[in-house]
Write a structure and sequence with these properties.
By secondary structure, the protein is mostly helical. It contains eleven helices and no strands.
Protein backbone atom coordinates (compact mmCIF):
# COMPACT_ATOMS: atom_id res chain seq x y z
CA UNK A 1 0.00 0.00 0.00
CA UNK A 2 2.88 2.38 0.80
CA UNK A 3 4.29 1.76 -2.68
CA UNK A 4 0.91 2.65 -4.24
CA UNK A 5 0.64 5.87 -2.21
CA UNK A 6 4.21 6.85 -3.10
CA UNK A 7 3.54 6.07 -6.77
CA UNK A 8 0.37 8.15 -7.06
CA UNK A 9 1.99 11.05 -5.17
CA UNK A 10 4.52 11.50 -7.98
CA UNK A 11 3.54 13.67 -10.93
CA UNK A 12 5.22 11.11 -13.17
CA UNK A 13 3.12 8.38 -11.59
CA UNK A 14 -0.09 10.33 -12.15
CA UNK A 15 0.96 11.00 -15.74
CA UNK A 16 1.44 7.26 -16.35
CA UNK A 17 -2.02 6.50 -14.94
CA UNK A 18 -3.58 9.24 -17.08
CA UNK A 19 -1.65 7.98 -20.11
CA UNK A 20 -2.81 4.40 -19.60
CA UNK A 21 -6.40 5.62 -19.28
CA UNK A 22 -6.06 7.80 -22.38
CA UNK A 23 -4.82 4.96 -24.59
CA UNK A 24 -7.25 2.46 -23.08
CA UNK A 25 -10.01 4.85 -24.14
CA UNK A 26 -8.50 5.18 -27.63
CA UNK A 27 -8.34 1.40 -28.01
CA UNK A 28 -11.91 0.96 -26.73
CA UNK A 29 -13.19 3.65 -29.11
CA UNK A 30 -11.57 1.84 -32.04
CA UNK A 31 -13.02 -1.53 -31.02
CA UNK A 32 -16.53 -0.06 -30.60
CA UNK A 33 -16.46 2.16 -33.69
CA UNK A 34 -18.86 -0.04 -35.68
CA UNK A 35 -21.32 -0.64 -32.85
CA UNK A 36 -24.17 1.93 -33.17
CA UNK A 37 -25.67 0.80 -29.86
CA UNK A 38 -22.57 2.08 -28.06
CA UNK A 39 -22.55 5.60 -29.52
CA UNK A 40 -23.30 7.27 -26.18
CA UNK A 41 -20.63 5.23 -24.43
CA UNK A 42 -18.11 6.01 -27.19
CA UNK A 43 -18.89 9.73 -26.82
CA UNK A 44 -18.11 9.49 -23.09
CA UNK A 45 -14.87 7.66 -23.85
CA UNK A 46 -13.85 10.39 -26.30
CA UNK A 47 -14.53 13.04 -23.66
CA UNK A 48 -12.52 11.08 -21.08
CA UNK A 49 -9.67 10.62 -23.54
CA UNK A 50 -9.55 14.37 -24.22
CA UNK A 51 -9.58 15.16 -20.48
CA UNK A 52 -6.77 12.67 -19.82
CA UNK A 53 -4.69 14.25 -22.60
CA UNK A 54 -5.25 17.75 -21.19
CA UNK A 55 -4.40 16.58 -17.68
CA UNK A 56 -1.16 15.01 -18.87
CA UNK A 57 -0.05 18.24 -20.52
CA UNK A 58 -0.49 19.98 -17.17
CA UNK A 59 1.56 17.35 -15.34
CA UNK A 60 4.37 17.71 -17.91
CA UNK A 61 4.92 21.45 -17.42
CA UNK A 62 8.10 20.95 -15.36
CA UNK A 63 9.52 18.05 -17.34
CA UNK A 64 11.69 20.25 -19.56
CA UNK A 65 13.93 21.09 -16.59
CA UNK A 66 14.03 17.44 -15.53
CA UNK A 67 15.17 16.39 -19.02
CA UNK A 68 17.88 19.08 -19.10
CA UNK A 69 19.17 17.93 -15.71
CA UNK A 70 19.11 14.32 -16.94
CA UNK A 71 21.14 15.37 -20.00
CA UNK A 72 23.73 17.01 -17.71
CA UNK A 73 24.05 13.76 -15.75
CA UNK A 74 24.35 11.51 -18.80
CA UNK A 75 27.11 13.74 -20.21
CA UNK A 76 29.26 12.52 -17.31
CA UNK A 77 28.96 8.83 -18.27
CA UNK A 78 32.30 7.14 -18.99
CA UNK A 79 30.80 4.92 -21.70
CA UNK A 80 30.85 7.13 -24.80
CA UNK A 81 28.05 5.27 -26.60
CA UNK A 82 25.71 5.52 -23.62
CA UNK A 83 26.78 9.13 -23.10
CA UNK A 84 25.91 10.06 -26.69
CA UNK A 85 22.64 8.12 -26.92
CA UNK A 86 21.21 9.19 -23.58
CA UNK A 87 22.33 12.82 -23.80
CA UNK A 88 20.84 13.26 -27.29
CA UNK A 89 17.67 11.45 -26.16
CA UNK A 90 17.28 13.73 -23.12
CA UNK A 91 17.93 16.89 -25.15
CA UNK A 92 15.28 15.89 -27.67
CA UNK A 93 12.92 14.99 -24.84
CA UNK A 94 13.44 18.49 -23.43
CA UNK A 95 12.66 20.01 -26.85
CA UNK A 96 9.56 17.82 -27.05
CA UNK A 97 8.33 19.10 -23.69
CA UNK A 98 8.95 22.71 -24.77
CA UNK A 99 6.73 22.14 -27.82
CA UNK A 100 4.19 20.35 -25.64
CA UNK A 101 4.11 23.26 -23.18
CA UNK A 102 3.57 25.74 -26.01
CA UNK A 103 0.68 23.63 -27.30
CA UNK A 104 -0.82 23.55 -23.80
CA UNK A 105 -0.54 27.34 -23.56
CA UNK A 106 -2.25 27.59 -26.95
CA UNK A 107 -5.05 25.28 -25.79
CA UNK A 108 -5.80 27.29 -22.62
CA UNK A 109 -5.60 30.59 -24.50
CA UNK A 110 -2.35 31.95 -23.06
CA UNK A 111 -0.84 32.05 -26.55
CA UNK A 112 -2.86 32.61 -29.70
CA UNK A 113 -0.66 33.55 -32.65
CA UNK A 114 1.08 30.20 -33.26
CA UNK A 115 0.70 27.46 -35.86
CA UNK A 116 -0.66 24.61 -33.75
CA UNK A 117 -0.11 21.97 -36.45
CA UNK A 118 3.49 23.03 -36.98
CA UNK A 119 4.31 22.89 -33.28
CA UNK A 120 2.57 19.52 -32.99
CA UNK A 121 4.67 18.08 -35.82
CA UNK A 122 7.83 19.52 -34.26
CA UNK A 123 6.94 17.84 -30.96
CA UNK A 124 6.45 14.51 -32.75
CA UNK A 125 9.83 14.83 -34.52
CA UNK A 126 11.63 15.48 -31.23
CA UNK A 127 9.76 12.60 -29.59
CA UNK A 128 10.68 10.28 -32.47
CA UNK A 129 14.37 11.18 -32.36
CA UNK A 130 14.40 10.71 -28.59
CA UNK A 131 12.89 7.23 -28.97
CA UNK A 132 15.33 6.29 -31.74
CA UNK A 133 18.28 7.21 -29.52
CA UNK A 134 16.76 5.34 -26.58
CA UNK A 135 16.31 2.26 -28.75
CA UNK A 136 19.91 2.60 -29.95
CA UNK A 137 20.97 2.53 -26.30
CA UNK A 138 18.84 -0.59 -25.77
CA UNK A 139 20.43 -2.37 -28.74
CA UNK A 140 23.90 -1.41 -27.51
CA UNK A 141 23.20 -2.70 -23.99
CA UNK A 142 21.69 -5.93 -25.35
CA UNK A 143 24.73 -6.53 -27.58
CA UNK A 144 27.02 -6.08 -24.58
CA UNK A 145 24.96 -8.51 -22.52
CA UNK A 146 25.06 -11.06 -25.33
CA UNK A 147 28.85 -10.80 -25.62
CA UNK A 148 29.26 -11.27 -21.88
CA UNK A 149 26.82 -14.18 -21.87
CA UNK A 150 28.53 -15.90 -24.80
CA UNK A 151 31.84 -15.93 -22.89
CA UNK A 152 30.27 -17.74 -19.92
CA UNK A 153 31.34 -21.42 -19.89
CA UNK A 154 28.15 -22.59 -18.18
CA UNK A 155 26.08 -20.82 -20.79
CA UNK A 156 28.08 -22.43 -23.60
CA UNK A 157 27.24 -25.84 -22.15
CA UNK A 158 23.58 -24.83 -21.90
CA UNK A 159 23.55 -23.67 -25.51
CA UNK A 160 25.20 -26.87 -26.75
CA UNK A 161 22.62 -28.86 -24.84
CA UNK A 162 19.82 -26.78 -26.37
CA UNK A 163 21.11 -27.27 -29.92
CA UNK A 164 21.70 -31.02 -29.47
CA UNK A 165 18.35 -31.78 -27.84
CA UNK A 166 16.37 -30.55 -30.87
CA UNK A 167 17.96 -32.12 -33.97
CA UNK A 168 14.67 -31.94 -35.90
CA UNK A 169 14.65 -28.16 -35.44
CA UNK A 170 18.24 -27.88 -36.60
CA UNK A 171 17.25 -29.41 -39.94
CA UNK A 172 14.75 -26.59 -40.54
CA UNK A 173 16.34 -23.63 -38.76
CA UNK A 174 19.85 -22.38 -39.50
CA UNK A 175 21.96 -23.43 -36.47
CA UNK A 176 23.62 -20.01 -36.26
CA UNK A 177 20.22 -18.30 -36.20
CA UNK A 178 18.93 -20.68 -33.55
CA UNK A 179 22.03 -20.03 -31.43
CA UNK A 180 21.68 -16.26 -31.87
CA UNK A 181 18.00 -16.26 -30.85
CA UNK A 182 18.71 -18.52 -27.88
CA UNK A 183 21.52 -16.18 -26.75
CA UNK A 184 19.29 -13.13 -27.24
CA UNK A 185 16.36 -14.57 -25.29
CA UNK A 186 18.55 -15.82 -22.45
CA UNK A 187 20.26 -12.42 -22.20
CA UNK A 188 16.92 -10.60 -22.04
CA UNK A 189 15.49 -13.14 -19.60
CA UNK A 190 18.35 -12.51 -17.18
CA UNK A 191 17.92 -8.72 -17.52
CA UNK A 192 14.17 -7.98 -17.50
CA UNK A 193 14.73 -4.21 -17.09
CA UNK A 194 16.43 -4.08 -20.51
CA UNK A 195 13.71 -6.23 -22.08
CA UNK A 196 10.91 -4.05 -20.68
CA UNK A 197 12.59 -0.81 -21.77
CA UNK A 198 13.07 -2.18 -25.29
CA UNK A 199 9.44 -3.28 -25.59
CA UNK A 200 8.27 0.06 -24.18
CA UNK A 201 10.32 2.09 -26.67
CA UNK A 202 9.20 -0.05 -29.60
CA UNK A 203 5.56 0.42 -28.60
CA UNK A 204 6.05 4.17 -28.17
CA UNK A 205 7.66 4.37 -31.61
CA UNK A 206 4.32 3.70 -33.33
CA UNK A 207 2.89 7.00 -32.01
CA UNK A 208 5.23 9.55 -33.68
CA UNK A 209 5.63 7.34 -36.77
CA UNK A 210 1.86 7.45 -37.30
CA UNK A 211 1.60 11.15 -36.41
CA UNK A 212 4.34 12.12 -38.88
CA UNK A 213 2.98 9.85 -41.62
CA UNK A 214 6.22 7.86 -41.81
CA UNK A 215 4.45 4.59 -41.06
CA UNK A 216 0.69 4.79 -40.92
CA UNK A 217 -1.20 2.51 -38.54
CA UNK A 218 -4.80 2.59 -37.38
CA UNK A 219 -6.05 4.05 -34.12
CA UNK A 220 -6.39 0.56 -32.65
CA UNK A 221 -2.69 -0.22 -33.07
CA UNK A 222 -1.67 3.16 -31.64
CA UNK A 223 -4.07 2.71 -28.71
CA UNK A 224 -2.86 -0.83 -27.99
CA UNK A 225 0.84 0.08 -28.20
CA UNK A 226 0.29 3.19 -26.10
CA UNK A 227 -1.53 1.15 -23.45
CA UNK A 228 1.20 -1.52 -23.30
CA UNK A 229 3.89 1.16 -23.04
CA UNK A 230 1.97 2.95 -20.28
CA UNK A 231 1.50 -0.25 -18.27
CA UNK A 232 5.22 -1.01 -18.55
CA UNK A 233 5.94 2.54 -17.39
CA UNK A 234 3.71 2.03 -14.36
CA UNK A 235 5.40 -1.28 -13.51
CA UNK A 236 8.89 0.23 -13.74
CA UNK A 237 7.88 3.14 -11.50
CA UNK A 238 6.41 0.84 -8.86
CA UNK A 239 9.29 -1.68 -9.09
CA UNK A 240 12.50 0.34 -9.37
CA UNK A 241 14.55 -2.83 -9.97
CA UNK A 242 12.77 -3.20 -13.32
CA UNK A 243 13.89 0.30 -14.41
CA UNK A 244 16.86 0.32 -16.77
CA UNK A 245 19.96 2.11 -15.54
CA UNK A 246 21.50 4.45 -16.43
Amino acid sequence: MDAVVHFTSQSQGRDRVFRATQYACALSIYLLRNNPERNDFVAKLKSLEANMSAGRKLFRLGNTINSIEAAKRTMQLSDRVLCLCLTVANINRALYFICDNVLWARTVGLIRDIDKERWSLSASRCYLFSLVMSLTRDVYVISQLMVQRAKDKLFKQKMDSHLNESPEVAEVVIPQLDAFLFLLLESLKSHPAVALDTVKNICDLTIPLDRLGIYRSNAGVVGFCGLISSLIGIVTLVQSKLRIKP
